[in-house]
Specification:
By secondary structure, the chain is an alpha+beta fold. Helices cover 39% and strands 26% of the residues. The strands form two sheets. Strands 6-5-4-3-9-8-7 form a seven-stranded antiparallel beta sheet, sandwiched between helices. The protein has a two-stranded antiparallel sheet with strand order 1-2. Strand 7 and strand 8 form a beta hairpin. It is elongated. Residues 116-232 form the PH domain. Pfam families: PH. InterPro entries: PH-like_dom_sf (IPR011993), PH_domain (IPR001849). This is PH domain-containing protein. Residues 16-36 are annotated as: Disordered.
Length: 244
């Protein structure tokens, strides 16, 4: 029955502390060391990724191949010759100039969209009216010499740009020089695309023929030009008077 009272069995060393449990717990010093090691590994991995990213950015330039080396601290670095550094600087300057040009184009386009009365792409070709006493021009209606132009109605001018990104117009016409604006018959191209047309006639005999696949666009241009040029149903009579 053991050494205890009757009915109670005493097992020696049953409640003594276990040494194995104490040995299995991690020491504070070991945990700090592991955290520091993991942090260093993450830091080195982050630095390596940043270096690789910078190298990939450099590869966007004309440098054929990047040379890699190691610094005194063991960190990897890109090694460039003096010629490569100068080439890189020149390309950076060129990119900055291109960025300035694009910025100017955006500002110009923003100004057009803000202040222009009307602007859109139109297909345009030019013709000269016959002067008094000259024979009528040859019928060249079938000649496909339409050219796309970005046309802007702003202030007292019509501006013709090669594209909406151009800073300077290719041509311009004073609204006060326009003596006639009217619609032209629509036509269908070989690709079965229908274009709606109108013309602009100046006092100098220059005639702009304009077309667009949108009838709404064409009607908008005709209406806006007639209003801004103060042209009515008697525009034909005004034109005859001026030309004589």
């Amino acid at each position: 029955m053991g050494d205890g009272p009757r009915g109670v069995k005493v097992i020696s060393d049953h409640f003594s502390s276990s040494t194995s449990t104490a040995n299995s717990l991690p020491s504070p010093t070991s945990s700090v060391t592991d955290i520091t090691t993991n942090s260093d590994l993450r830091s080195n991995s982050w630095a390596r990724r940043k270096l690789k990213s910078a190298a990939s950015m450099l590869n966007l330039f004309s440098l054929k191949r990047l040379s890699w080396g190691s610094g005194a601290d063991g960190q990897e670095k890109v090694v460039l010759s003096a010629v490569e550094v100068e080439s890189l600087r020149s390309e950076i300057v060129a990119l900055e100039e291109r960025e300035s040009h694009y910025k100017a184009q955006l500002e110009h386009l923003d100004e057009i969209l803000r202040y222009a009365r009307l602007s859109s792409y139109l297909y345009i070709r030019s013709r000269w009216e016959a002067l008094p006493g000259e024979p009528p021009p040859l019928d060249d209606a079938e000649v496909d010499d339409w050219l796309p132009r970005f046309v802007v109605l702003q202030g007292s001018y019509i501006y013709l740009f090669l594209s909406s990104a151009d800073l300077s117009p290719q041509d311009s016409t004073l609204l006060s020089d326009i003596v006639e604006v009217d619609s032209l018959p629509c036509f269908t191209r070989e690709d079965e695309e229908t274009r709606y047309c109108f013309y602009i006639l100046t006092r100098h005999g220059l005639r702009y023929e304009c077309s667009n696949v949108s009838k709404i666009q064409v009607d908008s241009w005709v209406a806006a030009l007639k209003i801004d040029c103060k042209l009515g149903s008697d525009a034909k009579d005004i034109n005859d008077t001026i030309m004589m």
